[in-house]
Amino acid sequence: MLTKDLISEIAAQSGLTKRRTEELLNATTSVVLENLLQGKSVQLQNIGSLEVKEKNARTVVHPKTGERTFVPAKKQLVLRPTAAMKEVLKA
């Protein structure tokens, strides 16, 4: 789903204008991003919790050639779904 489609659907369900909906979505995105960059977890009701995890540096081996490659440490965005979301996804 594209952002413009999301804005249209939220506007239709909430009764807000598309412009107001876009402003709210942009503000929400900004607040979520700020908190993630500060190392905080963000809880999304009925969806799950977003957090940034640090992946350690490691060495990987190519299975066919046996060549070793170093993979540097990096940050990764992780979504931990709620129990309710896990149940919905099972169905």
Briefly, what is this?
This protein is α+β, with helices and mostly antiparallel strands and 91 residues long. It is 44% helix and 30% strand. The protein has a three-stranded antiparallel sheet with strand order 1-2-5. The chain has a two-stranded antiparallel ribbon with strand order 3-4.
Question: What keywords describe this structure?
Answer:
5 strands; two-stranded antiparallel sheet; 44% helix; alpha+beta; 3-stranded antiparallel β-sheet
Kindly describe this structure:
- With 91 residues, the protein is of the alpha+beta class.
- The protein has three helices and five strands.
- It has helices spanning 3-14, 18-37, 83-90; strands spanning 42-44, 48-55, 58-61, 68-71, 74-81.
- Strands 1-2-5 form a three-stranded antiparallel β-sheet. Strands 3-4 form a two-stranded antiparallel sheet.
- Strand 3 and strand 4 form a beta hairpin.
- The longest helix is centred in the N-terminal third of the chain and has 20 residues, at 18-37.
- The radius of gyration is 19 Å and the shape is elongated.
- The mean pLDDT is 96.
